[in-house]
Amino acid sequence: MGSVISSDHHDDGGSSSSSSSPGLGDIPESCISSLLMNFDPPDICKLARVNRAFHRASSADFIWESKLPSTYKFLAQKVLSDHDIETMTKKEIYAKLCHPNLIHGSTKEIWLDKCSGQVCLLISSKSLKITGIDDRRYWNYIPTDESRFGSIAYLQQMWWVEVVGEVELEFPIGTYSLFFRLQLGKASKRLGRRVCNVAQVHGWDIKPVRFQLSTSDGHKSLTEYFLNKSGEWAHYHVGDFVVESPNKPIKIKFSLAQIDCTHSKGGLSVDCAFICPK
User: Fold this and answer.
1) Is 245 exposed, middle or buried (0-12, 13-18, 19+ CB in 10 A)?
2) How far apart are the first and last CA of the chain?
3) Chain centroid, CA 115 distance in Å
4) pLDDT digits (tens, 9 = 90+) for 97-110
5) pTM (2 decimals)?
6) Residue 17 DSSP label
7) How many structural domains does the chain have?
8) Among 62, 121, 157, 198, which residue's Cβ finds the most Cβ atoms within 10 Å?
9) Are residues 53 and 124 in the same domain?
């Protein structure tokens, strides 16, 4: 038996050197494809390296169409041209959608989770409605390599702080979580090392920040946190929502607010909001 396995390996999956001893290369590709449908995409890609037959079988359209969410056409239309959708194989479409893709004027980044097929979405600070963002006495956009979008919104000082986001998308069935990525302080590089200036950080320990989420199909969430992690990025969980009806756009509205005008707040960096499978 050892000689048969060795022969199959050297022949890269071709017919076995012994006609009486079938090997992996003798399995019909249609059978291999049917078998591969039972694996997750990362495992399919690993099995494609077994031999040539597995490699060819792993590219079957019906395998990858079964891994794509029912809403994939909605997403594909946002990141691919009509010509690409018509000419690319389902495997190529799957691979493209699993890579981060910038949409909406490069203010959002979207991709599919490779294992679950659910949607992940990043929403940049420039895609959020920020009270006072056009007044440089209060807010500034600061370029940084610490953001996927190349810049963050930085609050110097203000009494009324409110950041609101809204997105409408077809999500595959599942439970999703929404977070804000925030930092107290302004990070920069000094002599090649990261430093974070926290001199303007104030007011966040007096009253909590209120985070809210609501969806067009009735899900609501409200949480409150004191912001107390100076000098490092932190993810603040806004809430969860459940998608039960596929192929139907859902509108999500979310916000953070600290509007107690008895004290000013400052030193807050806002990178993005993001949605991911729970």
Assistant:
1) exposed
2) 47
3) 13
4) 999 999 999 999 99
5) 0.84
6) S
7) 2
8) 121
9) no
